[in-house]
Amino acid sequence: MTQTLSARPHADRTSSTSGSAARGLMAGAVVAGPLFLAAGIAQGLVRDGFDFGRNAISQLALGEAGWIQTANFLAAGALLIAGAVGLRRTLGGGVGGTWGPALVGVFGASFWAAALFPADGGAGFPAGAPATTAMSGHGLAHMLAGTVGYLALCAALVVLARPLAAGGHRGWAVASRLVPAAVLAGFMASAVSVLAFTAGAGLGVVWLAAVTARLAMTPARR
Predict the structure, then answer these.
(1) How many Å apart are CA 139 and CA 194, to the nearest integer?
(2) What whole-number distance in Å separates Cα of residue 82 and Cα of residue 50?
(3) Which residue in 46, 124, 112 sits closest to 79, CA to CA?
(4) 163 touches 212 (CB < 8 A)
(5) Over the stretch 156-210, which tens digit does the pLDDT of each residue have?
(6) Domain positions in the chain
(7) How far from 170 is each of 8, 26, 201, CA to CA, in Å?
(8) CA 169 to chain CA mean position, Å
(9) Terminus of the chain with fewer CB atoms < 10 Å: N or C?
(10) Residue 157 in contact with residue 177, Cβ under 8 Å?
(11) Could you count the other beta carbons within 10 Å of the beta carbon of residue 30?
């Protein structure tokens, strides 16, 4: 009996330490999107020739200062993958706890692919970029990485609505099912307005940050 009682505080401490470590990892997914957007906006405001109405944030990886955006892609990917690990440890099994983190991990990996395969220049950026509509091999790979990544993000938000609802956050769950529609609408409007694409993608990463923070505060194992 004494041995059982003495073992319980140790088990509680171990569980608490494990929970704190998982929340620490989840912080990666909380900060990744906002930091990526902030760094992209800051660069777009100071890079010569860049216009948010004509150019995608991905194009900031081009030119002499392009290494900054490449590092931004790499850092965001690492933070998102760390967040995916934290989500998996926190949520446990079930559909939300298995597929949600896996999809967030795919989203994170897409940032690394985007760093490895830069977008094509165009629409006046960087200066001297050829005015051509032909897509290069690395430009196509970049586009495919972004497409797969943001589809994975949309799916992750829908799946993570389950643990949100299970934790009593029904309003959050409803919003998490609706936000992907806005993200996809921005993508579909990208042929008309690059800014719509940027806004849709930005909404997606910011909402992922909010959902992850909510789950970190009141996790539900479902």
Answers:
(1) 16
(2) 31
(3) 112
(4) no
(5) 999 999 999 998 999 999 999 999 999 999 989 887 889 999 999 999 999 999 9
(6) 25-217
(7) 34, 21, 24
(8) 21
(9) N
(10) yes
(11) 22
